[in-house]
Design a protein that fits this description.
The complex is a heterodimer of chains A (about 775) and B (about 170).
Chain A lengths: L32 H6 L14 E6 L6 E7 L1 H5 L3 E6 L9 E2 L6 E2 L5 E2 L7 E5 L2 H10 L1 E6 L6 H5 L22 E9 L2 H6 L3 E9 L11 E6 L5 E4 L5 H12 L6 E4 L16 H11 L3 E4 L2 H5 L6 E10 L5 E13 L5 H10 L9 E10 L13 H19 L3 H8 L6 E3 L5 E2 L4 H12 L9 E11 L4 E10 L4 E5 L8 H13 L6 E4 L17 H28 L7 E3 L2 E4 L2 E4 H9 L5 E10 L14 E12 L6 E11 L6 H21 L29 E7 L21 H13 L10 H11 L6
Parallel strand pairs in A: 1-14, 12-13, 16-17, 22-23, 29-30
Antiparallel strand pairs in A: 1-7, 2-6, 2-8, 3-7, 4-5, 9-17, 10-15, 11-12, 11-14, 15-16, 18-19, 20-28, 21-22, 21-27, 24-25, 25-26, 28-29
Helix pairs in contact in A: 6-7, 9-10, 10-11, 10-17, 13-14, 14-15, 16-17
Chain B lengths: L10 E7 L2 E7 L5 H9 L17 E4 L2 E4 L12 E3 L1 H4 L6 H8 L9 H14 L5 H7 L10 H14 L6
Parallel strand pairs in B: 1-5
Antiparallel strand pairs in B: 1-2, 3-4, 3-5
Classes of the chains: A alpha+beta (about 775), B alpha+beta (about 170).
């Protein structure tokens, strides 16, 4: 295969009317949606593997312990049990893996570092036998004084979550700080000297779990060629392929990852977790091994980093921010996963999308004996935005400004830097338009009823800072087309967009475009499905592949018909000949002639990072959102009734307005989860107390605001196809800030801790003496 | 002593699934959810929380919406079960079409349960108010949080069926 053409991300030439044949920009219904409503869609647990062995994990009921012994005798005696794998079964040390630190063992090696970390795995002919045997495995352990909170982890002499030996050469190896980040610009002393008002507080953001409705799991099939077929509903099949190849010592071509559509991912299904363990089980038994996780096991395998943010912010009398200081500690859990990057990338924007002359942001990724945290929609931004947005409102209240006005006075204009210093970042959109539209839609300034309050906030998140997506598009001889694109479709609707793009660019009817994904054996490389990148990266690759197809049609048409190529031209959906225009499928049919065949176009979109940039490169785009919330507080109970919730995102171009609305509403309500009700609670042994759907509350139908309105700002100024940007996270970035400001206005009390549960709101009113209006 | 449910523990249960009589041999602890998925071979009904909180496994049992994870196979002897597959035997229903039209289907994992719950709601209340839809559907979780889209889908279906609400 020839080298695919490369370019860096840059705005494409924008057609005056995006979407020449009109599918792009329309609310096209979801690709594959019919199967998803009829029950025909096959998720991982629905796939049939006759004769597969079933796997059950063995865990112990504490968060930190030395494992003294594992007795598998009784388990092995249970009929149907094929094998029990423990750390002792590995020839030397247990292999470790991880995206940034190779710190996570395939099975706990001598020590359990969080509640739910598997100590052993049972393989049996039936699930009943596997689960019975898992209960029969006797684990002798000695509980250790694990660190389950930031305070405990950072205390002098604290128990070390990771043995210093697995952090060789790291000067901080004798602490629980895994990584830190520091961003500074301007002169804090100078700015403080001209400051009129200073606000300071300590904010907390809870540990929350992704709670995909599909718990997930993995099936590994050993192949006759000594390789492995891995079935896992992951966002990053190509990363999983590389990880398995590495720990199993196999070449990439013998590890094939099938990724059935994730039933919800939200970041939790990005990085490998149990797949390496399943791979070893399959290699040992030479049988297909299957594990479908319970929801409880899923809770124990993914969460968002909790965060504590100490913030100090100065303002002039006019409400201009003079300086902003942030110390942010992210509670990341027992292993790194991608959490150090969550810390670094989230805190990078901890001064918000504002014009701040002097800033000092110091952030740390702190290990604790808890579930390893990972990517979760927003990727560190919601945590810091909670603090920064609350600080703006605190300053505004002291200065007699409202939340809209203080943001108007500080929001950067397009092209203006909001991160300064060596790694400057500038606004890539007319962000003020989102702010003003949100204010308009909420009815900012209109009179409020009793016990009501209104808040407005903005949020920002850097998109991908490097990336690579490759795509193939096949135009078949009958004019239908097949797109190969490795993006995982976990609900965002990526395949629908590829279908729309191909329909417009090749002139193929929408329903004659099919999309293949989820198979590393047949679909070209895609770095990952994360950071709302796919529209920009894979979308551009698909677009380029379509243009490649058109060039090839033109060339073969010239060769087949004898019309000189320089008398031909192509445009979306058509070939222009001296005798007039032909639809591209018709031109393709004529060019292919009686031998038929097909055209194969390829597209690549690559964004190389910058070695000297703290994030590894400039963001391809920013997600910007403004959210406004109106709330009514029940002063007797502290309950919040959201009467109106508005969210407006800067989207560049809406390629599919229906999918944008779905994503925005979904993100907004997910944001209400961590703002109002969600939090993982631990007991003194580091066990999750609210483990499972019964005790861990997420938003339901009854938590949806009475009015939920989403809006989009379209200036066609994004780097993706037709001026698009990624949009899937924006609407939850600043939900908490908007809600917190609304509650503060309604109650007269600003609460720095999330979630704003009825109990917490009631207690705050009680403490402030504001709970009795008369 | 741990039981492993040998074959002689199996109990025979005969039930009607989507209009067809089916007989399965299951251990007494087997839930209707697992029985439908693993024994009857209908994986459209989804498993998530396994404790009756999420609604992903909603089926109609003698015409009433239940969480299949909270019902044992042995309890459904002689009874009538309709799964999502049974609703859409003749292609997508009006309700399923409206789910798509409203943009209610994202990852799709909860959707079979949502569709069955919504079908039950509309059969028992052909003209539900928005508040009644929120109440009636409140046992079904959607982490993509397509709730408002689903409400619109139910409203549109009610109108199509001659119901609807001012």
């Amino acid at each position: 295969m020839t080298e695919a053409p490369e370019r860096t991300i840059e705005p494409l030439d924008l057609p005056a009317d995006p979407g020449p044949s009109g599918q792009v920009g329309r609310p096209v219904l979801r690709y594959g949606g019919g199967d998803r409503t009829s029950g025909a869609q096959k998720f991982l647990a629905d796939l049939s593997f006759p004769g597969a062995l079933q796997v059950a994990l063995v865990t112990i009921p504490v968060g930190c312990a030395d494992v003294l012994g594992v007795d598998t005798t009784a388990a092995r005696a249970i009929p149907g049990v094929v094998d029990v794998l423990t750390a002792a079964d590995f020839p030397s040390r247990v292999p470790r893996f991880g995206v940034s630190h190779q710190d996570r063992p395939v099975l706990a090696e001598g020590r359990v570092n969080y509640h739910g970390e598997p100590v052993a795995a049972v393989v049996a002919e039936t699930l009943d036998a596997a689960q019975a045997a898992a209960r029969a495995v006797r684990v002798e352990y000695r509980e250790l004084p694990g660190v389950y909170s930031l305070d405990a982890a950072l205390a002098p002499g604290a128990h070390l979550v990771q043995d210093p030996s697995i952090r060789p050469g790291d000067p901080a190896a004798a602490t629980n700080v895994l990584e830190d980040a520091l961003y500074t610009w301007g002169d804090l002393a100078d700015e403080e000297a001209r400051t009129s008002v200073v606000v300071a507080d300590v904010y907390t953001f809870p540990m929350v779990t992704h709670f995909p409705i599909e718990p997930g799991g993995t099936v590994v099939v050993p192949t006759d060629q000594g390789g492995l077929d891995i079935y896992s509903p992951v966002q990053h099949p190509y990363l999983l392929q590389r990880t398995i190849a590495s720990v199993a010592g196999l070449p990439l071509n013998r590890v094939r990852v099938f990724a059935p559509d994730p039933g919800g991912g939200f970041g939790g299904k990005q990085n490998p977790k149990i797949e390496p363990l399943l791979a070893f089980l399959a290699l040992r038994t030479r049988r297909t091994c299957r594990l479908v996780l319970s929801l409880e096991e899923t809770f124990q395998s993914m969460r968002r980093a909790g965060c504590r943010i100490t913030a100090r912010t100065g303002f002039t009398q006019d409400g201009e921010i003079t300086f902003h200081q942030v110390d942010a500690d992210f509670q990341i859990g027992a292993y790194a996963d991608v959490a150090p990057r969550v810390m670094a990338k989230g805190s990078y924007v901890a001064a918000g999308p504002y014009r701040v002359p002097a800033v000092r942001i110091a952030a740390r990724a702190v290990l604790t004996n808890t579930t390893p945290s990972t990517a979760f929609r927003g990727f560190g931004s919601p945590q810091v935005a909670w603090a920064t947005e609350s600080q703006l409102d605190a300053g505004a209240r002291l200065l007699g400004l409202d939340g809209l006005e203080v943001r108007r006075r500080n929001l950067v204009a397009k092209g203006e830097a909001f991160v300064r210093g060596e790694s400057e970042a500038t606004a890539d959109g007319e962000w003020w338009q989102s702010l003003e539209k949100a204010a308009e839609l909420i009815g900012w300034g209109e009179p409020l009823g009793p016990n009501r309050g209104r808040g407005i906030a903005v949020g920002i998140k850097p998109g991908a800072t490097s990336g690579l997506s490759q795509s193939l598009v096949r135009l078949l001889c009958d004019g239908s087309a097949i797109v190969y694109a490795g993006t995982s479709d976990m609900g965002q609707g990526a395949r629908t967009l590829w279908q729309q793009i191909v329909a417009d660019e090749l002139g193929t009817p929408l329903d004659e475009v099919s999309v293949v994904s989820g198979d590393t054996g047949t679909v070209p490389f895609d770095l990952q499905t994360s950071a709302s990148r796919s529209t920009v990266f894979m979308g551009s690759a698909v677009l380029e592949a379509c243009r490649d197809v058109r060039q090839r049609v033109l060339a073969l048409y010239a060769e087949s018909t004898g019309v000189p190529a320089d008398q031909l031209s192509e445009r979306p959906g058509a070939l222009v000949t001296p005798d007039g225009e032909l639809s591209l499928p018709e031109a393709a049919r004529q060019a292919l002639g009686s031998l038929r065949g097909e055209f194969i176009g390829q597209g690549t979109r690559r964004l190389r990072g910058k070695g000297n940039h703290p994030l590894g490169g400039d963001a391809a785009f920013y997600e910007f959102n403004a959210t406004a919330i109106e709330v009514e507080v029940d002063r007797e109970t502290g309950e919040l009734l959201l009467t109106k919730h508005v969210t407006v995102s800067d989207v560049g171009t809406e390629l599919n307005p229906l999918q944008v609305v779905s994503q925005d509403e979904g993100a907004a309500i997910m944001g209400l989860g961590h703002s109002q009700m969600e939090q993982l609670l631990l007991d003194e042994h580091g066990r999750i107390r609210n483990l499972g759907a019964l005790d861990y509350r997420i938003p339901t139908f009854k938590d949806v605001p009475l009015e939920l309105i989403t809006g989009a700002i379209e200036n066609h100024d994004g780097p993706g196809p037709y001026g698009s940007k990624g949009i899937s996270e924006g609407a939850l970035l600043c939900t908490a800030g908007a809600l917190g400001a609304a509650v503060a206005q309604a109650t007269g009390v600003a609460i720095p801790d999330l979630p704003l549960t009825p109990e917490r709101v009631w207690a705050a009113m009680e403490a402030a003496g504001t709970d009795r209006p008369d | 002593m741990t039981s492993t449910h040998a074959d002689d523990d199996l109990q025979t249960v005969t039930l009607t699934v989507n209009g067809s009589e089916r007989t399965v041999a299951v251990p007494p602890h087997r839930t209707l959810l697992d029985g439908l998925r693993d024994e009857v071979g209908l994986p459209g009904t989804k498993s998530c929380c396994a404790e009756g909180e999420c609604g992903a496994c909603t089926v109609l049992l003698d015409g009433r919406a239940v969480n299949a994870c909270l019902v044992l196979c042995v309890e459904v002897e002689g009874r009538d079960v309709t799964t999502v597959e049974g609703l859409s035997r003749n292609g997508l229903t009006d309700l399923q079409e409206e789910f798509l039209n409203a943009g209610a289907v994202q990852c799709g994992f909860c959707i079979p349960g949502q569709v069955v719950s919504a079908e039950y709601l509309l059969r028992t209340n052909p003209s539900p108010s928005e508040e009644q839809i929120r109440e009636g559907m409140s046992g079904n979780l959607c982490r993509c949080a397509g709730y408002q889209r689903i409400v619109r889908a139910v409203q549109a279906t009610a109108v199509r069926r001659g119901g609807g609400h001012d």
